[in-house]
Amino acid sequence: MRHDESAPPTPRRPGPAAAAALTVLCLGIGVSGCGGESGAQAQPGQGGAPVPSSATASAAASPATPSPARTSPAPSRKPASPSPSTPAASSGPLSGKTVVIDPGHNPNNHLHTAEINRQVDIGTTHKECDTTGTSTNSGYAEARFTLDVSHRLRALLQAQGAKVVLTYDDDRAFGPCVDERARIGNKAGADAVVSVHADGSAAGNRGFHVILPASVRGGGADTSKIVGPSRDLGTRIAGLFVRATGSAPSNYIGGNTGLDTRKDLGGLNLSTVPKVFIECGNMRDPKDAALLTSAGWRQKAAQGIADGISSYLME
Fold first, then answer.
1. Is it the case that residue 78 has pLDDT exceeding 50?
2. What are the catalytic residues?
3. Which of the four, 78, 151, 177, 245, has the lowest number of CB atoms within 10 Å?
4. Which of 198, 127, 196 is nearest to 166 (CA)?
5. What is the DSSP letter of 270?
6. How do 209-213 and 275-282 pair as beta strands?
């Protein structure tokens, strides 16, 4: 059973333009020292889809610094309430916008292996309903991380007036399946959907990356109308995630651009609204794990994602 539906299917090493691409991204958003440990190479089985070019990194950088009107409120020092009944603001810069947040996996999936191993149609092929997700070496589960960040993100977006829908809120025994996660965003008519994850790669592989939908068509999958808007959403999140967290783009996926394009994820293939995944860091690397287990850093991560969504929705 695979641990993570978003885990890359094939190995890949950073391209020769990696260092230049990262420099463009860092300069474009004005973050000092954001280069991180960019020299590490992917371990077998940790790669992904074709690496975006340095031109892609430039595109990611250009919208990254928002105008004052787009800047999100300063992060709260207190964790966001996990209550699903948290009221949305009646007005604000995102009033009238709907955002769907998809917390990756479910803490109880490991107790329902038969159900989550059931194959579902993702348009181009069939895939497991869901997966267990990964964890840090000390046992902090990805599913707990994603739910915590999602609660924080919801609070930040609601404070700006957005209507926020979670695909689940620790309110079901397992799942939802990847096809249902996509349908929830579609049914909501979401202006943007973000699926929150953390990776489970080898130690030494560090940093975040945003996964964009590839152009696919087959069965119930047709991403032709969302590829462009999703790339815009993803590049804004990547740039502003760097600024909010100080974390560098992945040194093992995406050629240091912080972007990766995939055609094997049901959550993206079946979406009819702009959608991206974000892998906030690598839970199996001790340095990344120290960040992911920090409540203060998780608030910064939520702020970076919120800033990217706000920048996209107010363009």
1. no
2. 279
3. 78
4. 196
5. T
6. antiparallel
